Amino acid sequence: MLKSSSKEPVWAVGLMTGTVLDGNIDVALLKTDGESIAEFGVYSLEPYDDVAIDLLRESLLAAQQWQFRGNEPAIFARAESELTRQQSAAVASVLAKHSISSDDICIVGFHGQSVLHRAPTATQFGQTRQLGDGQQMADTLGIPVAWDFRTADVTAGGQGAPLAPVYHRALLQMLKSEKQACGASRAVLNLGGIGNITWWGDDDQLVAFDSGPANAPINDWVSRQGYGRMDVGGQLASKGMVDEQRLAGLLQHSYFRQPYPKSLDRFDFTSAMADGLSLADGAALLTAFSASAVGRALDILPQRPQTLVLSGGGRHNPALVAEIAQRASVNIQLAEDVGWRGDAVEAECFAFLALRVLRNLPLSFPSTTGVSSACCGGVISYPAR
Question: What is the rounded average pLDDT of the residues 33-39?
Answer without folding.
Answer: 97
